[in-house]
Amino acid sequence: MKQLSLKEYLVPRSLKEALSILDEYSGNIEVIAGGTDLFVDEHPDLDAMLDITKSGLDYIKVEGRCLVLGSCTTYRELIKSCEVKKNFRALWEASNVLADMTVRNIATVGGNICSAVPSGDAIPPMLACGADFIIAGKNGERTVKAWDFFTGPRKTALMRNELIKEFRIPLPLDKFGSSFEKVARNSVDLANANVAVYVECENDNRIKDIRIALGAVAPTAVRAKAAEDCARGKTPNDEMLDKLCAALPSAISPITNIRSTKEYRTNVVKVLAKKAFLRAYESASA
Amino acid sequence: MEKKYTINFTLNGKERTVETTAGTTMSALLREILGNTGTKVGCDIGDCGACTIIMNGRAVKSCILPAMKADGADIVTIEGLGGKDGLHPLQKKFVEYAAVQCGYCTPGMILAAKAFLDENPNPTEEEARIAISGNICRCTGYVKPVLAILSAAEEMRGGSY
């Protein structure tokens, strides 16, 4: 929708230029990437938007044992990437069910992360796979772990003159897998609940490490650490899975809203976590 | 004071230079400044997809697309498809299959399908449905549009469109 109050739309051609503008602009300026969140509602307090999609921040590469995603990489590009499908399966699966085709064609993973909505589909995969967020500011870069980045609904650890440059996902040598599950009212809606699970296995297929991230069931996406502790070091069986699912509600504080009820959300995270765990474990133990 | 920007883009194969402002949407630029009303506005908040156009080969919703993003881009709207001298296979099949009722979703849906078929010429039915997942239709129940898209894909595989 038209932004009636917006005065300026700036398009820097490099990260350095973008950071300079962000630091020096005297009015209210907001970073825009794909615009599929920011350009929906009117923002009467905004003087300017800083479009960072031409600053060279869209890339997917593997550097050593690390998958690196530029913050302006679109979901379309993530879906087409064999590297993402193989090494960051949870994000690849989330990319395929996020919004709809016309949104995925232009929306960016950085934009979804920075919008920091509790139900953001890219967020649980980032938490589950232990992503490092590389934040750039005028004076340099700093790293924030995914699970330290989100401080509340639509609130993040970003300072006023910073933006996310890239995401770095550490990759073990082998025997790891991740997956993503989501339920929504229809195929293009926000999640009622979404879950990402990451599993790493020993050679004998005991669980070496596990991370479970739950979205849309708390003010921010959360790790289910008690549930993770049930599984770490174990070989999965029905009893372990039951304990894992039973430990999930202690991690969440869902609400009842237009999309779903807190009772449904509390129950469905167990179903999603079990499904996601089984697929991630199958991949890790193969 | 609103700043004025001059942007240059290709619209349906022709170079255009247009003056716009920071907060203008692409749908408003197309409809109100250029007078191309083939692109419809339904919800104006990026949900219904009636405003879908093709930018740099990708189907996007123009009501939430800053007009400024069109600078340097290749834009295709429904006016760029067929016309008096012949219809694009998608347009032809939508008519043949009675996939048009009120017609309001149709331009956006056809462009979403075209952008998809240009890259995926042999889709499954599931893929065709995902291609138009951003286009809401209240009339047809999607059955005829999907059949029309699959039939158009078959015809497009036979020629050069």
Description:
The complex is a heterodimer of chains A (286) and B (161). Chain A has 286 residues and is of the alpha+beta class. Chain A is built from eleven helices and 14 strands. Chain A has a five-stranded antiparallel beta sheet. A four-stranded antiparallel beta sheet of chain A has the order 11-12-13-14. Chain A is globular and about 60 Å long. Chain B is of the alpha+beta class and 161 residues long. Chain B folds into two domains: 77 residues, Beta-grasp domain (Ubiquitin-like (UB roll)), CATH 3.10.20; 70 residues, [2Fe-2S]-binding domain (DNA polymerase, domain 1, Orthogonal Bundle). In chain B, a hairpin with a 2-residue loop joins strand 1 and strand 2. In chain B, helix 3 crosses helix 5. In chain B, 47% of the residues are buried. The mean pLDDT of chain B is 96. The interface between A and B is medium-sized, with 30 and 36 residues.
